[in-house]
Write a structure and sequence with these properties.
By secondary structure, this protein is mainly alpha-helical. It has twelve helices and no strands. Helix 3 runs antiparallel to helix 4. The protein is globular. It starts with 17 loop residues before the first helix and ends with a helix. The relative contact order is 0.05.
């Protein structure tokens, strides 16, 4: 009832090619690794992530999937403090990203974070400087179309204390994020906090405050999924309030942040 008969020619049916099957298997392992990572099953995340890497290695050299598979697997190793394995993957990612300034800058930025996690500030500074060189080489060819790449460039400029150059870049990145994802998404909250941090560095405390408030409101809207980021936003806002000599309000923000952190550990 309600169905119409149809005739399909046998020539309309096509068996999946080996490439199709490999793509499906890569997607299954890639998604499985991501899901395992988010439930803190690192052993399974490693197993499926490495399986996805092996499949992606068989794709064309310019296929984006090998890069993103390596990039995601780095987080699995970093969260376990497997620094050598993470560094090896980032080094491989550099080879894959060769010729793409934005991706190269992203990898160097990842290496910088890795070294900072290990307390190696010398290597951190070196990688941040190298990341900025890579990002600038891409920016010289035009504004990055990807807001995440643009935001990373702004953050690198900020780290280099080139605040006057960083501000319009981060403002543009925020506008692009809002247009692409919507004004109340978590990724926009991150952009707001990055811009607020720049304003604090510039001494524009009054301009930073509404950005932190908006970032906090977005995180609260996405609770409990956004609680981790909310704790960070509250902590940064508390630091701003301290700078503004509003110690009682700062204390309240610190307490809220600490409570969220404690809840996440239960």
């Amino acid at each position: 009832f309600g169905l119409q008969s149809c005739y399909c020619s046998p020539f309309d049916f096509r068996l999946p090619s080996e490439e199709d099957l490999n793509s499906l298997e890569w997607q299954r392992n890639f998604n499985g690794s991501s899901e395992a990572y988010h439930r803190n099953d690192f052993a399974e995340a490693e197993r499926m992530g490495n399986a996805a890497v092996r499949i992606a290695e068989g794709f064309k050299p310019d296929d984006y999937r090998l890069y993103i598979t390596l990039h995601n697997l780095v987080f699995v190793y970093e969260d376990q403090k497997k620094w050598i394995e993470a560094e090896h993957l980032l080094t491989r990612s550099l080879e894959v990203a060769k010729g793409n300034p934005a991706k190269t800058a992203e990898v160097y930025n990842g290496l910088a974070s890795l070294y900072l996690s290990q307390g190696n500030e010398v290597k951190f500074d070196k990688m941040m400087a190298t990341a900025l060189v890579a990002a600038e080489s891409g920016a010289s060819k035009g504004t990055p179309s990807n807001p995440e790449d643009l935001e990373r460039f702004g953050r690198l400029l900020q780290y280099a204390k080139r605040y006057a150059e960083a501000e319009p870049v981060l403002l543009q990145a925020l506008t692009m994020q809002e247009k692409r994802y919507g004004v109340d998404e978590m990724i926009v909250s991150s952009s707001l906090m990055n811009l607020a941090q720049l304003f604090v560095a510039e001494g524009k405390l009054d301009e930073a405050e509404p950005l932190y408030k908006r970032a906090i409101a977005i995180c609260e809207k996405h609770a409990p999924a956004g609680n981790s980021q909310l704790a960070g936003a509250l902590n940064m806002y508390a630091q701003l309030l301290e700078k503004m000599k509003r110690t009682d309000e700062a204390k309240q923000m610190y307490e809220k942040s600490d409570n969220l952190i404690q809840e996440s550990r239960r």
